[in-house]
Design brief:
Elements: H1 4-13, E1 26-27, H2 35-46, E2 55-56, E3 72-76, H3 81-87, E4 92-95, H4 96-102, E5 130-133, H5 140-152, E6 171-174, E7 179-180, E8 188-189, H6 191-206, E9 214-216, H7 221-237, E10 246-251, H8 254-273, H9 277-285, H10 302-306, E11 314-320, E12 361-363, H11 366-376
Parallel strand pairs: 1-2, 3-4, 3-5, 5-6, 6-9, 10-11, 11-12
Antiparallel strand pairs: 7-8
Bound molecules: 2-acetamido-2-deoxy-beta-D-glucopyranose.
Length: 382
């Protein structure tokens, strides 16, 4: 359901021919559908034509990880995960259900789903070479069990757990949101909660930290890099005044929208002041973390060369206070917007930094945010 001010905001952003007057992208942590599906939903809700090139889902930056695209990847999540993976360029994709069918002895938590007849493995699947976590699955116990099995067998479920398989297979995760606000009074589990389970089970069993090759979705820099790249593309295509140097990120969630925009702004600032921008990029490349500085040689920066350097020099955050629309409450729910969290709900690999949840601007509605941006940029729509 659209927030009324959102429709008005988009009337300002689109000219009479239905074309955007400035480059605009939508960044969502949702991940259980294709970009085109999300673009269609947004077009319908907002009443303006939106193309899939304007949409960034939590999984969209996976396009940059060319290195894994010809490898056999295990995908976890719900919705059309195989289609999503193929659409992102992955050629050999295995789902949790496929593993379950080929190795019927592994998923034993639910007594009713245990194999009725004695069965032997039909291990005809290729060896898994990387794991991609798209979003929260259903039947968590099945996914947790099989992902742990894959990590501990180095991708070959025909073999037993090995104690020395370190480093484990590359693991890429989309959407770190611990909780999200739906129609219920209190927030619901998000994919971040699933990741907490996986991290802790792995740690408990092996005594080692689970390591991510990449974490994407807001607030990771990777996602903002990708957004900047799409904005640059739009500007080029429409022959807008180049280069686009000022980015504005509008959102209602301090821990994702605001934190992410500020983190990316910090990256852009460091990039322009540091003598060696590559080093900064490397530091943030893997997880977006600046706390756990990963070992240089372990980091895959291949995606960096996929996108030319950003033209943007700043990314300003704008908090709107009308976010998660709840028809049952008049005041905005305080669960995850417009107030500071007292407990850090961000991902393990992201540090809590009060400066990062400080919005550049606070406005009531998204329409006010658009007005503010036009004013700041002295932009007069034709
Ligand atoms: C998987 O492990 C089994 C048992 O150790 C072995 O026979 C098989 O060759 C392995 N498969 C691959 C693809 O490495």
């Amino acid at each position: 359901m659209p927030i009324p001010a959102a429709k008005k905001a988009f009337e300002k952003l689109v000219n009479s021919q239905g074309q955007f007057v400035v480059p605009v992208v939508f960044v969502t942590n949702a991940g259980n559908c294709l970009r085109q599906t999300k673009a269609d939903q947004l077009s319908h809700i907002l009443g303006v034509p939106i193309t899939q090139d304007q949409v960034i889902m939590s999984h969209s930056p996976l396009r940059m990880f060319k290195k894994y695209q010809e490898k056999c990847v295990l995908v976890s999540g719900q919705g059309p995960v195989l289609d999503i993976a193929k659409n992102l360029g992955f050629e050999k994709v295995v789902s949790i259900d496929m593993l379950r069918e080929s190795f019927p002895l592994l998923d034993m938590v639910d007594h009713n789903r245990r194999p009725k007849l004695p069965s032997s493995p039909v291990g005809n699947l290729p060896k898994v070479e990387a794991v991609i976590l798209f979003g929260e699955p259903i039947r968590w116990e099945t996914n947790l069990q099989l992902i742990i099995d894959i990590l501990l067998t180095n991708g070959n479920l025909s073999s037993a757990h090995q104690s020395q398989t370190l480093p484990h297979l590359p693991l890429l995760a989309c959407n770190m949101d611990l909780l999200w606000m739906a129609e219920a009074q209190s927030p619901r589990f998000g994919h971040g909660t699933f990741l907490v389970c996986l991290e802790n089970i792995y740690k408990k069993i092996t005594g080692k930290e689970l390591k991510y090759e990449a974490l994407m979705g807001k607030p990771s820099e990777l996602t903002y890099h990708f957004a900047e790249y799409l904005i640059r593309g739009q500007a080029m295509e429409r022959q807008w005044k180049l280069p686009i140097t000022s980015l504005y990120a509008i959102g209602d969630n301090l821990m994702t929208d605001i934190y992410g925009a500020n983190l990316y702004n910090r990256y852009l600032e460091e990039r322009s002041t540091r003598k060696n921008p590559k080093a900064v990029a490397k530091m943030v490349a893997a997880t977006g973390s600046t706390t756990a500085v990963p070992q240089e040689e372990e980091i895959d920066t291949a995606w960096e060369s996929e996108l030319a350097p950003p033209s943007a020099t700043s990314c300003k955050s704008i908090l709107v206070c009308t976010g998660v629309y709840n028809p049952n409450t008049e005041v905005p729910s305080d669960a995850n917007h417009c107030i500071k969290e007292t407990v850090f709900h961000g991902h393990r690999d992201f540090r809590f930094d009060p400066a990062l949840v400080e919005p550049g601007h606070i406005v009531q509605h998204v329409e006010d945010a658009v007005d503010l941006i036009f004013e700041q940029e002295k932009f007069v729509p034709q």
